[in-house]
Structures are given as C-alpha cells and as structure tokens.
Amino acid sequence: MGQNAPVENHARTAVPPWPPQLRRGAGPRFLQIADALQQAVTDGLLKPGNRLPPQRELAAQLDVDLTTITRAYDEARRRNLLEGRGARGTYVAAPKVDLTSVLDLSMNTPPPPDGVDFGDLLKQGLAQVLMRADNELLMTYHLGGGSASDREAGTRWIAPMFGSMHADQVVVCPGAQAAIAALILVRTAPGDAILVERTSYPGLRAAATQFGRRVTPVGTDKDGMLPQAFEEACRQHSPKLVYLNPTLQNPTTVTMPEKRRKELAAVAKRCNVPIIEDDPYWLLAESPPPPIATYAPEHVYYISTLSKCLTPGLRVAFVLVRDPVERERFLVALRSFALMVAPLTAALATQWILDGSANPLMLGVRGEARARHKMASDVLGGRYARPGDGLHIWVELPAYWRPYQLAQAAESEGLAVTPAEAFATDGESENAIRISLGNVSDRARLRAALQRLSRLLERRPDAYGGAVV
C-alpha cells in the first residue's frame, strides 16, 4: 500500500457497544430504540462515523421483529441521527449544520410533540382515508359545511368543552380566520362597530378593516375585558359583535376566570350583542373554565380550530352555531369566499378524531408546550416569563426598551419576535413582545434562541451595537 493511500479508521467504522434496554409500558419499541440512539449520541457513546449493527442483527439482539428495527432506523434518520451508505451499512450522521439565518419566535404554531411519530401518523391516517373513502368524493365539491362524519368529529372535538351535542349544531370551516370573516359578514354592515380588547388578535382587525367595519377597543384588567366597560361601549357605539379570545389569550396569555366569563355573557344578553368566542387554546390549558358559550348559548358563536392543537396544515375549524337560521346565513357568507374545506384535509382530520389518533397528538403538543414554557422561564427568569400553557409568552420589556426597537435589535441577532404594536387596537401598545415557542422545532435551538434574547434584554439600547454592512 502506498504511503498516501487512504486507511479506513477502524475505530470509527467498527460496531460500537450499544445495547438499548427495552421496557414494557414505555411506549412503542421502535420509538424506544430511536430514543436510545438519540441519547447515546448525546452522551457521546455513539459518535459521527460509527457504524450501526445491520438491522437483522439488531433485531435478533433485541428479540424484536425486523419491521420494528426498520421503523426505528427510519425515525432516527428523520431526526438526522443516521445516514445510509448503501452496501457499507448505516452510520451515525455528522451534526446537521443549520444555515437558517433567523430563528423564528414570531409564528404561533404547535411544537412537534416528543414521542409521537407524526410522519407515521400522517401515513396511517391517509392510508385509512384512501382505503375507506370514495376517491371521487375526495376530489369534488362539498357544499354543506362538512359531511355528517365531519360534523360528528366536530362534536367529539369540542365535547371536553360542552359535553354531548347534536352534530347539526356544528359547521366545519376551512380555518378559524375564515369563520371569523364569515361571521363579520353575517352579523355586521359597513361602518358597524366590533368591540375588542385593547390588545387583541390581529386577524380580527385585518378582516374587519378589509370589510369596512370599525374596530372599537374596550378597557381591560388582568382578567380580560371589563364587563362595565363592555356595557358602556354597547350604549355608546351600538356594536353588532364583540370578539373575545378568553383562554390563553393571544398575545397576553390571560385566561379569563369563570366569574368574568359569566359577567360578560350576562352583558351580551342584556345588550343583545353576539360574541365571537375564538378559543383555539382551550385544550392546551391547565383546567380552563367553561367557555363563555356555556353561559349565553344563543348569543355566542364558538370557534375551535385544529391548527393550534394538532398542526396548521389541517385547515379545519369547528364552529358551534345553535340556531338553524343563523347556521344557514353563516354558510351562505362562508361560501362567498371559501366554498369548502379541502375534502382530503377534512377527511384526514375526521379520521384522526374518530379513530382516536388526534388525542395523543394533542396531548403530545400540550406536554411539549409546557416543557418549553418551563425552559423559557428558566432561561429568561421570572422577571420576563413564567411557566404556563399554550404556544406563546408575553414578555414585558424593561423601561429602556420599546417593542418595535427590541424587535429590530432581535432581528439583527438572528431572531424574529412580534412587537406589541402588532396587537394594539387603539394605537397605543403595551411595552411588551410576544414570543412563540413552537416554531423552532428543536429544543436545543430554542434554548439557544432564548439565551440570545435574554442577553439582549439585559443590554440597554445605547449599549447595543448591531453590525453595519
């Protein structure tokens, strides 16, 4: 062999000692194996370049079938832990280099749940849909606000909030934003007032402005909209709607206590003003109070979307509309701009809900969100963040920072956050930013982003020197 001939490093390619221990009741075996692989890489027992045992050999060693090992290796590849090298075998992959310039803490999406194989869930769900459904029906128009099965799935989804109900009361919509827009068209005319909290979801303001409606802010306290201020606004502005997001409010994270919900429901009934209750985070909250719709069922349109508890790709929302005449009016308005939910999407959502797959996915999202809240509290400290639920935190800034100024400085540090100005409905914003915890898929990268933000919060703007290029 010549002096410069390559010599294979036996230490890097030899099969390392790696005996994962499988336990009964600890979850699917393929996930236990993938988790053990990930832990071994984290602990340094397995290093980049180490060759893993052939799948049949490992199956015999662990006394499992070959399919279990194949699924475990596939899951490990999905996590970027392994790479295949053809006939040479499967090797521990080198760390993936992240070339993304900005870590996005501005988009409220559910985090990938730990221990749930989303890819496998998606494949199985679609396989069941295609096996059981008429493929022609999946590719044609559907005009009825959801099939009977879709509406039945809707009743099961919102059963934790309301108990059992008739499926005819549920309308299936292509997302919560479409439902909000349709309700604005149904219940208001150009120039009418819609009451909102001073800091509120921008999507409501965008839809109302587009339709020529007036967004009118109402005073709040630590528990949300003030009942007395609501009633005074009704007398002063004769509103046609009031919009509330009472559970883990976006962006402030406030959850209205039950007493406040009852008081607002009573005002709505006295003043005969319908409420849009947008409630995407109820299932993620720890022991939330009953919805406002419980106390004023004939005065509340209740919206629950799958986008925040499962995945944004399921553009499905369930709207509780009890009155049949109102339901038909709502459908007419909805069809004017969004004819239907994509049938394949609706069928997948229905399949997951009815076969029970949606619940562990939702519980996985909830558990991961709570772990990330704990991380944010640990990194940012109680001064800026407290452990909680949901997908975001509301960070009150020190007096030397302003929201838009901090957001610009964060962007220079490779972070995207949302300043309070984006949520203000009266032109005056709180001195805060919203941080979304789910859009950065990897916990380690999220921790690094939060640490970067923590250092920025501690620096005064006059001490901050961004690069000039």
From TrEMBL:
Region (Disordered) location: 1-25
Gene3D superfamilies linked: Aspartate Aminotransferase, domain 1 (3.90.1150.10), Type I PLP-dependent aspartate aminotransferase-like (Major domain) (3.40.640.10), Winged helix-like DNA-binding domain superfamily/Winged helix DNA-binding domain (1.10.10.10)
Segments passing through the bilayer: none
UniProt domain HTH gntR-type: residue ranges: 27-95
Sample GO molecular function, one term: transaminase activity
Stored InterPro entries: Aminotransferase_I/II_large, HTH_trans_reg/aminotransferase, PyrdxlP-dep_Trfase, PyrdxlP-dep_Trfase_major, PyrdxlP-dep_Trfase_small, Tscrpt_reg_HTH_GntR, WH-like_DNA-bd_sf, WH_DNA-bd_sf
Protein family according to the UniProt entry: In the C-terminal section; belongs to the class-I pyridoxal-phosphate-dependent aminotransferase family.
Protein name, UniProt field: PLP-dependent aminotransferase family protein
